[in-house]
Design a protein that fits this description.
By secondary structure, this protein is α+β, with helices and mostly antiparallel strands. The protein has a single domain, classed as Class II aldolase/adducin N-terminal domain (L-fuculose-1-phosphate Aldolase), CATH 3.40.225. The protein is built from seven helices and eight strands. It has helices at 4-19, 79-88, 101-109, 133-142, 157-174, 202-222, 239-245; strands at 28-33, 38-41, 59-62, 67-69, 94-98, 128-129, 186-190, 194-199. It has an eight-stranded mixed beta sheet with strand order 4-3-2-1-5-8-7-6, with helices on both faces. α3 packs across α6 (202-222), α4 (133-142) crosses α5 (157-174) and α5 packs parallel to α7. The termini are far apart.
């Protein structure tokens, strides 16, 4: 079995996220870059299985999205987004995704989360990337467009289309910030979906997620006016334009 040490570290991080209540059964995903060409990701369907993941359940994929080693399950449906993040951010070696309720308050409102604690000042504001899941999937199935090369073999191309929209927006916003990962993690919100944190390792990505989650809780308590609903989602006919223009809050 490839990458036994990395498998143990990823599952330890998963357990710590559960213990700290920054990962629940509504969804989420973890990945770690193991070498220049291979990434270890959590399997599909792990949240509803209450995160009962064994080392052999983790999936090794290459940077083209091909499965190199797997157990009982396929990789997470959003693996293309994880691969795109690693491509955009060479310093990034770990990606964590979570759906905590406090963070979803900002993501679902479609607003930027301000820094409201000294622990999150280094991250700056956490932007919400527009990626309205169901309309994008419907638009792609109605009129498919070329996907990122990493999506070529995706078993759910409509999911890959959503990931492409997210990845394109993140590339424009975060590629210039790669050097920051030497000092601290980075984070963004996905509209109506959750949070993604990126780090030079699992420890840094975990630290970023924990602090952003706490910041969300404190901000909701002390500055509830910051959670205001943004402009309505664009019509499905505008989604291709959204793909190129990155309409973030």
């Amino acid at each position: 079995m490839l990458f036994e040490r990395e498998r143990d570290e990823l599952l330890e991080t998963l357990a710590d996220m559960r213990a700290e209540r920054i990962l629940d059964t509504t969804g989420g995903a973890l990945s770690v870059r193991c070498d220049e060409n291979l990434v270890l990701v959590t399997p599909t369907g792990a949240p509803p299985r209450r995160w009962r993941v064994r080392p052999e359940d983790l999936v090794v994929i290459n940077t083209k999205g091909d499965i190199v080693e797997r157990g009982r399950y396929a990789p997470i449906a959003a693996y293309t987004m994880h691969l795109a993040l690693y491509e955009t951010l060479p310093t990034c070696n770990a990606v964590l995704h979570s759906h905590t309720s406090a963070i979803l308050a900002f993501a679902s409102a479609g607003v930027t989360m301000p820094s409201n604690t000294n622990a999150t000042d280094k991250f700056g504001e956490v932007p919400t990337v527009f990626c309205h899941d169901l309309p994008i999937k419907r638009e792609y199935l109605r009129a498919p467009w070329p996907l990122h090369p990493n999506s070529h073999a995706h078993h759910r191309p409509d999911v890959a289309a959503v990931n492409d929209v997210i990845s394109a927006a993140v590339d424009r916003r975060f590629a210039p910030r790669d050097a920051e990962l030497h000092d601290h993690g980075l984070a963004f919100l996905m509209y109506r979906h959750g949070v993604v944190t990126m780090g030079k390792d699992l420890t840094q990505a975990f630290d970023c997620l924990a602090k952003v989650h706490t910041n969300a809780e404190i901000t909701l308590l002390t500055r509830p006016e910051t959670v205001r609903v943004a402009a309505p989602a664009p019509a499905e006919s505008q989604l291709l334009e959204a793909y190129f223009l990155d309409p973030v809050a």
